[in-house]
Amino acid sequence: MPDSGLSEIDLQLADEIARFYADPLGFVIFAFDWGRDPALRLCKLPEPWSFVYNTEFGPDRWACELLDRVGQQVRERGFDGVHAVPAIREAVASGHGIGKSTITAWIILWIMSTRPYAKGTVTANTLQQLENKTWAELDKWNGKCITGHWFDVSTGRGSLRMQAKVAPTAWFCAGQSCREENSEAFAGQHAADSTPFYIFDEASGIPDKIWEVAEGGLTDGEPMFFAFGNPTQNSGKFYDCFNAQRHRWGTRQIDSREVQISNKDTINEWISDYGENSDFVKVRVRGMFPAMSAKQFISVPDADAALGKHLRVEQYSFAPKILTCDPAWEGDDELVIGLRQGLRFDVLRTIPKNDNDVQIATLLASLEDEHAADGVIIDFGYGTGIYSAGQTMGRDWLLADFGSKSPDAGCLNLRAFMWREMRDWLKAGGAIPNDKVLYADLIAPQTVPRADGVIQLEAKKDMKRRNLPSPNRADALALSFAFPITRKQHVHVNRQDTIRGHDPYEAVSPRGLDEHPAEHNPYENL
Prior knowledge:
It is a single chain. With 526 residues, the chain is an alpha/beta fold. The protein has 18 helices and 13 strands. An eight-stranded mixed sheet has the order 3-4-5-2-6-7-1-8. Strands 11-10-9-12-13 form a five-stranded mixed sheet. Helix 12 packs across helix 13 and helix 15 crosses helix 17. The longest helix is centred in the N-terminal third of the chain and has 18 residues. 42% of the residues are buried.
């Protein structure tokens, strides 16, 4: 091993720390004196982690879950120190007082301690936030960290820098202002054999230009991007993490009431003063984005009321079962199969774009039999092949053309009619699963103002111009309102006769990932 400038004890510590390369939570438990430092004894480590690590104090549940998820993604990517891997992207929207600046410090210390020659950039919505909270928290936790003496942390105005003593110009993390004229400071960090990383604190207030430049720095090595903040704006890049770019990001929305360290008295005062469904409480307590524009067709309160709502069986069991299929053949869209019975809707399957009509028709027939559906409705757009395959199986399915004439003159076309019926269904007490994608789909489309008052929804191409994906899951629910469906008398169907022994899931189940990539010791060539 070449001379690293580290003492023998530090070399032993480096070997020990390398064990946590893919275990950020393990690093956080190991690196701080949770048992004896009174300042750390604020949050009891929840189960099951308290059993795993045999310690009473530690991170709260949401932090444990996030750190575990990051570790899992590191293992899945299996970076070998040479070949670039896809970026890890995690976004957390939350109310006040959950410890966002603290977990920012933990993540920085984990990356810097386990990845020699890592390079990071950290910013916040204002310079004051960056200096007095984000960077001050990093300085505090570095002083408590078992590897803290490996690094110098400067806190002077205009000089926010954390650097390794053995390689200060090649192994560092810098705090940068998020002013747009400073965007070049977020350009590629060139850590091809290590981890380039970005952390945005109070990310709702960071200009889109800074996000765009940072994205360009995720092309080499083992890149990571973390965004934390109160969801203060219903537009911008932080909002997109939970909507248009949700397929790229791991996302969490944390309610301050569910966190051990938050000030519950103040939170209760806010709820009493403003109301639980007010934008004030949504943003500052519930970790939810505020209500959207007046053009929004389905309101946030209506979607909120339906999300995760529980119904008793007798509230929907009398109604017909309507199976729907919204296919997808292009881009990042997904094929969605849903089932609505009365006021209850469930997403049964989501599958990446699929052009095997026979396979999907076979799966749809299987689900029709399994759930004893009273009707099956398929989107005409990409569904004609599925419909035709169903006909050869003797299935009596229906095709709904979103652009066809509406049965109600108050709606421009069938799409507007179905969405209006779905909106009224939500207002009447409809229940949807706790599905953040479906929720975002419902509140995404806007109306197009018309002098005649006829309801017209913006085209999907216009939604894509707003960086919003096609609302496939909401369309699957909307399809259930295309035609009147009544209960029918069901007879027993032998599934083997129907599907001729074919397993419809054979080619649509997600493939497992290698859970045991080769171990990589980043210190072996230090």
